[in-house]
Specification:
The complex is a heterodimer. By secondary structure, chain A is mostly helical. Chain A has a single domain, classed as Helix Hairpins (Orthogonal Bundle). Helices cover about 75% and strands about 0% of the residues of chain A. Chain B is mainly alpha-helical. Chain B is about 70% helix and about 5% strand. Chain B is built from 27 helices and 6 strands. In chain B, a hairpin with a 2-residue loop joins strand 3 and strand 4. The longest helix of chain B has about 45 residues. Chain B is globular, with a radius of gyration of 29 Å. Classes of the chains: A mainly alpha, B mainly alpha. The interface between A and B is small, with 12 and 11 residues.
Chain lengths: ~100, ~650
Amino acid sequence: MSTVPLTHILFVSTSLFFIGMYGLFTRRNMITMLMSIELILNSVNINFVAFNKYLYPDKLDGVFFSIFIVAIAAAEAAVAIAIIINLYRSHRSIDVEDAAEMKF
Amino acid sequence: MNYSIIALIPLIPLATFVLLGLFGRKYFKTSGGIVGTLSLLASTILSLFTAYNYFFVDGKVNGVYRQFSVLKYTWLEFSPNMSIDMGVLIDPISMMMIVIVTFISLMVHIFSLGYMKGEDRFATYYSFLSLFTFSMLGLVLSTNIFQIYIFWELVGASSFLLIGYYFAKPSAVAASKKAFIVTRFADLGFLIGILILGFHAQTLDFGILIERLTNAQSQQFIDITTTSFLGVSLLTWGLSLVFIGGAGKSAMFPLHIWLPDAMEGPTPVSALIHAATMVVAGVYLVARLFPVYALSAPGVLEGIMYIGAISAMLAAVIACTQTDIKRVLAYSTISQIGYMMFALGVSKYGGEDGLGYMGSMFHLFTHAFFKSLLFLGAGAVIHIIHSNEMKDMGGLRKTMPLTHITFLIACLAIAGIPPFAGFFSKEEILLAAFHSNKFIYGIALFTAALTAFYMFRLYFSIFWNKPAAEHKNIIGNGELAKNNHHSEGTWSMKIPLVILAVCSVLAGLVPFANFITSDGASISTHIDITFSLAPVALSLCAILFAAYLYKKENDKPARIAASLGSLYQTVYKKFYIDEVYIFITKKVIFNLIGRPAAWIDKNIVDGFMNMLASITAAISALIKGLQSGRVQGYAFYFFAGIIGMAALFIYLWR
C-alpha cells in the first residue's frame, strides 16, 4: 500500500487547488465558479485524508474532518444554487460581470 | 397607633400622578380634576388623622413630643454605618407640615376645578399638582439629609413644570427656566453642604447628625470644628452652604429674583407652591437642623437673621410699588418668609429662649392659610378681569362680594390685626426679636407697617378705587356681560375661599406653643397688650394711610410717586437687582466664560471631530475603488490576503 509516497498525493491536491483557483478567477459563469469551489474543497479533503493516513494511521480525525467538509460542501452547493437561481430571475443571466451593481 | 399608614399620604398623590400622567389625556380629559381631588382628599384625611393622633394621643413622652422614624428602608449603602435611607420621620414640625401641605393642596385642587375648567391639558395639570404634592410630602417626611435633597429637587422640577404650564407663552417659559436655574444654583451649595456635613458626621440621618454635631465631646464634632477652610471651620461652611440651598428655595435676598417671575404659572399653582408650601421649604430645612445651627454655629444663625430681615424689608418696600397684583403677593411672600427666617435667627435652642423658633413655625402655619387665600382670591379676580394689572381693576366689591369679604379677612390677617391669625404669630416673632436684637425688632416693626400698607393698597385698588359702574366700561367688549352669570366663578372656586377664610380667622387661636417648640417641650406664651400696642397701632395707621390714598380714585399716589422721583423708580424697578443679575450673567459670565468656552467648543472640540471625519473621508475616497462590485475581484483580494498572511507566518514570523 505504501508504494505511493505522500508527496505525490500532495502534488495532486495542490494542482487540484490551483486548478480550482484558476477556474474561480477566470470563469464568468457562476455554475462553473461553483464547480471550481468544489475542486478547492476536495483538494483540502485529499490533504486531510492523506495526512491522516500517512502521519497518524491509528487516528481518525482527518477522516472526520473530510466528512464534515463534504457535508458542508453539499449545503454550500444548495445555497449557492439558490443564489444563482435568484440571480437568474432578476438579471436573466448568471454571468457575474452582469451583477456588479453593489459597488461604491 | 401604628404610624406606618403615614406612607400612604405621599404615595396616593404619586399614584395619581402616574395614573393621570400616563392615561390622563386619553381617559381622564375632563374627570382628571375629580380623580386628583378625591385622591388628595384621602391623603388629607389620613394626614389630619395621623397628626391628631400624634399631637393628642400618643406623641408625647414625659411631656416632650418625641421624634422617631418609621418604615426605614436602606436605599443605597456605602458602608455599614453610612447609607442613604428612605423613611418617614415623625416629629411636631413634620406633622404640622403634612397637614398644611395636604390641606392647602386640597383647597387648590378644589379651586382649580373651577379655575382651570376647559383647559386643554386639564388632566396634565392635575398630574403635575399630584407630583408636587407627593414631592413636598416626601420632603417634609424625610428622615435624612440626602432624602430631603432628592425630594427637594423633585419639588423644584414640579415647580418648573407648573410655572411653565402655559408653555406657549414665552414669558412663562422664561420664568420657569429662571426659577429652575436660580434654585438649582442654590442647590449646588446645598449639595456641597450635605457632603461636608455627611462626610464629617459620618451619617446622613437627621437624628444622629444632630446628636453628633451638637455634642462638643463627640469625635465627629471635634473633627469638623477643628478642620477649617479659608480660616472658617467646616461646620460653619457646611451649615452656611445648606442655608444657601434653603435661601434659594425660599427666595431669600439675593436669590429671590425667581419668585416674582414664577407668577407666570396658573394662579392656584402660585397659591400652592409659591406661597404656602414649597417656598417655606428653606425655613423648614433650617428648622429641621435647628439644634445644630443654634448650639454649634450661632454665627451662621446670625447671618440667617440678617438675610431674613433684609429680605423681609426689601421685599415689603418693593411690594408697595408693584402694579401686577400677583407680583405684589409674591413680594409679600418673600417678605413673610423673611420674617420666618429671622425669627429662626433670633431664636435660641430650648425652653423660653426658643420663642423665635416657635414663632417662626407658627407664622409658617398661619401664613400658609392667609397667603393661599390671598392668591386664590386674586385668582378669582383674574378669572373675571383677565388681567393681572391693578389699573384694570377697581370697584369689584359689588360684583364679587364673597371674594371681597374673604380677601379682606386675609388682608387683615396678614396685616396682623387682632384677632386674625397673622396677629398671633407675628406677635411671637416680634416679641422674640425684641428680646434678642433691637435692630432686628425695628426692621420687623417697620416691615409690619409696610405689610399692612401694601396689602391694603392692593385691597383698595381691587375692590374700591373706581366706581363699580366704571369697571364695566373697562371690561367693555361684552366680556363681563358674558361672564356675569357666574360673576364670582363656580362653587368649586368659592368653597376653598370660605374654608381658608375661616382658617385665617381661627388658625391664630391654636395654642401653638403647646405643640411645636424647639425642643418638643411646651412653653407658655401670653399676649402682652402693652407690647402688641405698637405693631397694631402702626398697622392701623398704615391701613388708614392706604385708605386715604387708594380708596377713591385720585392722583395722590401718582403725585407722591412723582415727588419721590428716582427713589420711586429705583424701588419700582426692584432695586435693579434683576438688572445686576443680567449684567453679571450676560456681560461678565457670557463674555468671560461663555465666549471662550464656545470658541473652544467650536474650534477645538468640534474641530477635532471634523478632522477625524475629513481624514476618514479622504482615505475612503482613496480606497473606494477596491469595492468594485466584481465578485472575482473580492475573491482575489481574499486569496491574496491569505497568501500574504501565510508568507508572513511561515517566513517572517519566526
